[in-house]
Structures are given as C-alpha cells and as structure tokens.
Design brief:
The structure holds two protein chains of two kinds.
Chain A lengths: L4 H13 L2 H11 L4 H16 L9 E3 L14 E2 L2 E10 L2 E8 L4 E7 L2 H4 L2 H17 L7 E7 L2 E7 L6 H6 L5 H20 L12 E3 L5 E3 L12 H4 L7 H4 L4 H5 L6 H16 L9 H10 L5 H4 L5 H10 L11 H18 L3 H7 L13 H32 L3 H27 L5 H30 L4 H29 L6
Antiparallel strand pairs in A: 2-3, 3-4, 4-5, 5-7, 6-7, 8-9
Helix pairs in contact in A: 1-2, 1-3, 7-11, 7-15, 11-14, 14-15, 16-17, 17-18, 17-19, 17-20, 18-19, 19-20
Chain B lengths: L5 H12 L3 H25 L5 E3 H13 L6 H30 L13 H14 L1 H12 L4 H8 L3 H19 L4
Helix pairs in contact in B: 1-2, 1-4, 2-3, 2-4, 3-4, 4-6, 4-7, 5-6, 5-8, 6-8, 7-8
The chains are: A alpha+beta, B mainly alpha.
C-alpha cells in the first residue's frame, strides 16, 4: 500500500523535534490507526539516529592526478570564438585553435596569466606592442590581432599560421647548410623588424617558427614573451617538459629579465646550431645541466661537428653564441646581412642545387617539413623537364616507326602515344611556368590525379608500341619499353615524393 | 550559448526562482559551463588528491558571472541554488568518467566516505518521492547553503528546510545502506 509521504514527513518531523523519550508516546498516538505509517517513520528514525554526520561534510571535488589538457574546452564558445582544438600547453597556459564567428576565420587564443591580466600598465604596454607588431605587416611575423577581455579573462588573439613548425625539422637530424642559411636569414629579418620598433621576442625556439605555405617562415608568439613576465621562476621550471624551451635562453636571460635585443640573437644562434649539427649544443639531461652549459660551455665549432658546413656560416652562428652580448653581432640586421651574403654566394657558386639538397639527409626526408620551397623545388623542376623531354622524344620515335607501318593497332597505338605524351608535356610545361604563383601548391594537388592518369596511359601505350615494333626494330622496342616502364614508376612513386618535398603543404 | 551579462543573469535567476522552467534551464546551462571551467582550472591548480569544497567553486563562478556588483542575499541564494544543481551534475559526471577510466563500478569517494554515483542516483529517487526534500539536500550538501539561504531560494520557512534536510538525509542514508 502507498503511504502519504507528506504525512510521513510531518510525523517524522514532529518526532525528531521531540526528545528521545517523548518520541515513543508521540508515535504511538500519531500512528495508532496506521501501522504502515508507524513502521516507515520508525525505520527513518532509526536511520536518522544511525547516520551520524552523513552528508554534513559538504561535497568536495577531488583534484585527480589525470592531466587536464584543456581538451574539455573543445566545442565551447568563448565570446565570439568557438574552440576547435587544443594547440598546445606551454608554461604560460593553454593555446586553443578557435574560429572567430564574426570574421569566419581561424585564430589562436591564448589566455594571459593573472599577473599580466591584473596589471593595467603592463597590459596596455603589451597591447601597444601587439598593435605595433601587427602594423608591421611582415609575413615573417605572425600577426597579433590584439588582446580581448572576455568574461573577465584576457586572451591574446593571434593569426593562425597553418604549417609545420621547425621542431620537426630539428628532430629529423642535421639540415642542409643552405636551408640553415635561408631559415636563419628570414628569422633574423623578423627579429630585426621587431627590434627596430623596440620589441624583443625573448622566447625564440623551434616551436615558435612555422613554415608557411610556399616555404617561407613565420615567427610566432611575439608578445606573450613580454620581458617583465619572463620572471626567473618562470624561466627555470623544475619539470622536464619545459627543459626543451630553456635550452634556447641566453645566459643573461637565465640571470633575470633581459631587455637586450641581442638576447634573441643568442637564441637564434642556438637554433641554427641545432639545425646545422642536429643537436642543441647546451642540451643536458636535467634543466640544471642545461643552465650551467648555457652559462659556461663554449660549443665546439660547427665545422668540427659536420664538415659540410661552410666556414662563413659556422662563423656567423658562433658569433651569435657569444656569452657576452657585446661580443655578438650588433643587431639582427647584421646577422641577416651576413646570411644574405652567404645565400647569394651559394646560389652564384653553383647551378646544381638539386644535387646538394638531395644529398643532405635533413632537407628531403619525406614527412619532414621542407626547409624552403625554393630549395626543394630544384629536383621537382628537373624531374618535370626530364619527363617532358623523355615523353616527347620517345613519342616521336614511336610515331616514326608505327605510323609508317600498317595495321589498325599500330595506328591506334601511335595516336594514343603521341596524344598522351603531348598532353602530359603540355601540363608539365604549364606547371613550370606557373610554379611561382602563390596558390600553386593546391592547384598542383588538384591536377595531380589527372596527370597521373595521362602518364599511365602514355606509358601503357609506349609498352604496347614496344611490343608491336619489337619484331622489326628490336633495340628500339627495348628502349621504348624501358622508357615506358620508367615513366610509370616515376609518376607513381618518384613524382609524388618530389612534389611533397617541393610543396610541403600540398601533401597534407 | 552566449553568456548573459550580470544584469540579465540576475533577471534570469529571479524568473527561475519564480518557477519559470525555461529560465531555470537557461541559467543552469550558463552556470554549469562557467563552473566547469572554474573546476577545470582549480583541479589543475591544486595538487592531486586535494579536496576542494564544491561550494567554494560555486562562489567563484558566481563572482565571475555576476561580477563585483553588490548582490542581495536573495540573488545570492538564487544563484547558489542553481550552482548547487550544476555542481551535483558535474561531480556525478566526473565520477562517471573516472569509473569508466577504471573500467569498473565506482567504489566510493577517494576518501571512502560517499559513493558519489550511488548518492546521485539516490537523490534522483528521493526527488520522485519529494522533489523539495531532494532539492534541500542538493542545496545544503553540494552548495553548502545555510538553512536561511535555502529558505530564501525555495520560498519556504526555515523550519521546513530543517525538517526536509533531516528526513531527506535519513531517507538517503537508508537507501544507501541497502534497505528498501
């Protein structure tokens, strides 16, 4: 039978308000005609007496060991921004990839720490810097769009640069000296532009250098590394995870906040040394070791680590790594000039770029980000030329032999060969002419399946022609068959690899 | 959902307290989102194993959502009432996620006092018997609200709150102790 709960509550309430001795007569009276009610209230009273401090200790949330990576924020909206993904977690908070609903474009959101957010003067200074950097409109500096206050939190909003960062390249081993020069020059240019308006980066590391589509590099994270906030305790964390980034600090930064722009040159030097040699000169198993090495260790000359490194590049990098800022190049412009001189020397010195970049283990490693498109386009360029010439010459030979012969099959084969070879050659010629365009990589990617198809038809008809003619012209038939097979292999395997190297983003 | 400004939220809380179900859901959703962020941050900030009072996190969310305006005790109580529900959901959600990670039934709180998931289910059952009693448990246990604040939020006498709290606890205790 069902009980009237209101009645139970009333009787229970009346009972608990009475002393223990008064309860029994109270219950006896209230429940005299209702056994079930009496039983229920008695049971609840028993529970009441037993439960002690049950639920009187308020609820708690227990901080668990599980690392909170911010991923629970994905899909959330912060003001006009919808969080799409967690980009990374640094010592200074989590960075999110978000879409700006107002402008329908992707941005990077980083929450600014309390210390900075609460300091009006510093925030205004940071805002000024952000604006100044944005006004520079340098492709090498990823634009800071500003600082926004959303529900009492401050977020640094910056341009999202799609592309691999330098870490991948650094990890993949030593890089071709020419790539080191090109990257170094672009970063030095970016630093110089910032220094010219009084802004140092102060947190230069491979993670902050990103390859844009087309192969040029951009420096990220300007602004967050604002000098007064690189406090000693922030710069010298105990955890291993951050040891990577302290490896790029200058000796003076380890002592305390540095305002000398030449501190950035030291960090640049460490990065370039690592790129060229394959290892960070100051890396140690523990952060304390890294710190002492940065302060005291004189890294061995690059030429002694890797013989291919030109003496002038070695000199330029080692000069940046001087412990005393006074001994380093006077400014980033000087570094850029030095590297630019090396760059022109390099291009003037030889016309066979592809051979050198091919022989370097770092530059053409598949999957690794391309150091600079112009570097890796050499092999791609010559590949196109070779395929074009091979196609046209062989097609001409086939035409000469087959078209003069009789038989429908011979004619079909001759026409197919010449037609597909001409189409393929035309496509490639068009590529060679257009390869400088900005949006060339996506176009190339779109056209690739078509060209593969045409090339496969061409090589198939070459092989057919070879079979057909081998009775009369055995040697020529063999040559045509070999060319046809090589073409098929080239278009299926060699070309995609070269394309990925030449146009890194087109493969992603 | 966009976060309303403090004034709009106060109006929403008021409407919710007067029984507007839509307003209640809207306010709950806003508070829940904010609370989740506050909890995520707190959990990250504290050492693993630290017990953070849930009510403290509710109050932090209140400060962030309602700003530094001077709040009436009624508004505060109305906010905490919504936040208590939000924190209950959040705690249950976290316990569920943790039990899934352990790939076994939740074995009670880390300190062994209350099985969070069982308690949550029991409160749900209580709310079918007497919604207000379940609500009072929610406010007092999860939001650490005083009887006075509960009375303001629910619009009943303090004596009624005391009675609901007593029988609600006894009912839940009996339920969790395994009796019918």
């Amino acid at each position: 039978m069902t009980l009237n709960w209101q009645l139970v509550t009333d009787v229970f309430g009346g009972a608990v308000e009475r002393s223990f001795e008064d309860r029994v007569p109270f219950l006896a009276e209230e429940c005299s005609r209702h056994d079930a009610l009496g039983a229920e209230v008695a049971e609840l009273l028993a529970a009441y007496d037993q439960m002690g401090d049950f639920l009187t200790e308020p609820a708690v949330i227990v901080a668990e060991a599980k690392k909170d990576d911010g991923s629970q924020n994905v899909g959330r909206k912060i003001g006009p921004y919808e969080i799409e993904a967690v980009l990374g977690e640094g010592g200074r908070g989590t960075a999110f990839l978000a879409t700006d609903a107002r402008q329908h474009r992707q941005v990077v959101l980083k929450k600014i720490g309390r210390a900075l957010a609460c300091d009006d003067v510093a925030r205004a200074a940071l805002l000024r810097e952000a604006k100044a950097l944005t006004d520079l409109k340098r492709p090498q500096i990823a634009g800071v769009q500003g600082i926004e206050e959303i529900y009492g939190e401050y977020y640094l909003v910056s341009e999202y640069v799609l592309g691999a960062n330098l870490r991948g390249l650094v990890e993949s081993g030593p890089v071709d000296p020419w790539a080191v020069i090109s990257i170094g020059r672009q970063v030095a240019d970016a630093l110089h532009a910032g220094h010219a308006i009084g802004i140092s980066h102060n947190n230069l590391k491979p993670e902050n250098i990103v390859f844009r589509e087309g192969g040029s590099v951009s420096v990220l994270d300007y602004g967050l590394a604002h000098t007064p906030y690189l406090k000693a305790n922030e710069a010298l964390p105990a955890g291993d995870a951050v040891a990577v980034s302290i490896g790029y600090l200058s000796p003076e930064q380890l002592e305390g906040p540095s305002t000398d722009p030449r501190s950035d040159l030291f960090s640049l030097g460490v990065m370039l040394y690592e790129l060229a040699s394959g290892r960070n000169p100051f890396a140690a198993p523990a952060p304390a070791g890294t710190i002492s090495r940065i302060k005291t260790l004189q890294p061995p000359a690059l030429a002694s680590v890797r013989s291919q490194i030109p003496a002038a590049l070695d000199h330029a990098i080692m000069k940046c790594l001087e412990k005393d800022p006074q001994q380093r190049p006077p400014d980033a412009g000087a570094v850029s000039e030095a590297l630019k001189a090396l760059e022109s020397l390099d291009t003037a010195g030889s016309g066979e770029d592809e051979d050198r970049s091919m022989s370097s283990p770092g530059a053409t490693k598949p999957g690794a980000a391309s150091p600079s498109a112009s570097l890796a386009r050499g092999p791609w360029f010559s590949h196109q030329l070779i395929v074009m010439v091979a196609m046209l010459v062989t097609a001409y030979l086939v035409w000469q032999v087959e078209a003069s012969g009789s038989g429908v099959l011979a004619m079909i084969v001759a026409f197919t060969t010449v037609g597909s070879a001409a189409a393929s050659a035309m496509m490639r010629l068009q590529w060679l002419i257009q390869s400088g365009a900005d949006d060339f990589a996506p176009r190339l990617k779109r056209m690739m399946p078509l060209v593969i198809g045409i090339d496969l038809v061409a090589s198939a008809s070459l092989v057919l022609a070879a079979l057909d003619m081998s009775g009369r012209h055995f040697t020529l038939g063999m040559v045509v068959a070999v060319v046809g097979t090589c073409l098929a292999v080239a278009v299926m395997f060699v070309e995609p690899a070269k394309m990925r190297t030449a146009f890194p983003t087109s493969a992603s | 959902m966009n976060v309303p400004n403090p004034k709009a939220l106060v109006a929403l809380l008021d409407a919710a307290a007067r029984g507007d179900i839509t307003a209640h859901h809207e306010a709950l959703s806003v508070v829940y989102d904010e609370l989740r962020m506050v909890v995520a941050r707190a959990v990250k900030r504290e050492k693993p194993g630290t017990q953070i009072p849930a009510a403290q996190l509710c109050r932090e969310s209140m400060a962030r959502l309602l700003g530094d305006q001077i709040l009436s005790t009624v508004t505060e109580a109305q906010f905490m009432a919504v936040a208590s529900r939000a924190v209950r959901d959040l705690i249950a959600e976290r316990a569920l996620a943790a039990s899934r990670q352990r790939k076994g039934p939740a074995a009670g709180d880390e300190d062994g006092s209350v099985d969070v998931l069982a308690l949550n289910r029991a409160i749900e059952l209580l709310s079918q018997v007497d919604p207000r009693q379940a609500r009072v448990v929610e406010l007092r246990y999860f939001g650490e609200m005083s009887a006075e604040a509960c009375a303001l939020a629910l619009g009943v006498a303090e004596k009624t709150i005391d009675r609901d709290w007593a029988i609600g606890r006894a009912w839940l205790y009996r339920k969790l102790a395994g009796r019918p």
